[in-house]
Write the structure tokens for this entry.
Amino acid sequence: MEMTEWAIRILSAETLEDKLLTPPFLTDETPGAAVFWKEPKRPPGMAFRNRKREEKLPPFHELSDPDKRAVCLHRFAGHELLAVEIMAYTLLAFPEAPKRFRKGLANTLKEEQGHVRLYRKRLNELGLEFGDLPLFKHFWAHTPFITSPLHYVSVMNLTFEQANLDFAPIYGKCFARYGDDDSAKLMAQILKDEISHVGFGWHWLRKFKGEESEWDAWTKTLATTLLSPKRAKGFYIHPEHRTKAGIPHDWVERIKNN
Ligand SMILES: [Fe+2]
Ligand SMILES: [Fe+2]
């Protein structure tokens, strides 16, 4: 299947199975003209909803309750589905991006589909189906600001996914503390993949940045979006995961102070 056709199928899918369709062979011979997809179609009951103030994630001290852990896992599954859709958006938006970038992006998309499946399985074990709880627009609201491949790596890989290098291990530790090893293992898998997704972003930031420093290219790109470096971290920074992703130490210090 052509990557463009795959991306269109994902964004217009009305079943979760179609959102998670992973063709065994992908080609990229006719990427076509650029398309900036407005909003993804969603399976029944999974449409974007406005988040009410009270629909916050349960606090850590309540996560001894498996139902509360399931609420967290459902929210994270929603983030994974958004990642799938944003990556499909990016494949459609930049048909002329380097082939190797598109291939790497397609591989990341497949891993995000895998993450949805992993969360779904764990949710089922906890007695919940993916879609039972509300799903929000969240990261999709940033797609109009993804106007180049440099914007994509800056927004998705180096901001949202970089922040997950802090959030995934914190939730993993918390789940383990309450004896939920299966959910903790799931978070460890997510973290491992996320390190490589951030690494992909770092690699391509260096290719796309031109003469500027990586930091200037990233922050200047973010300045044209709704984001800032503040969004690239959790409340506790894990330098070791950033190092594994190739992010240099001076970034850690600068992100800490931002
Ligand atoms: Fe993911
Ligand atoms: Fe990711």
User: Anything to note?
Assistant: The mean pLDDT is 96. The chain has nine helices and two strands.
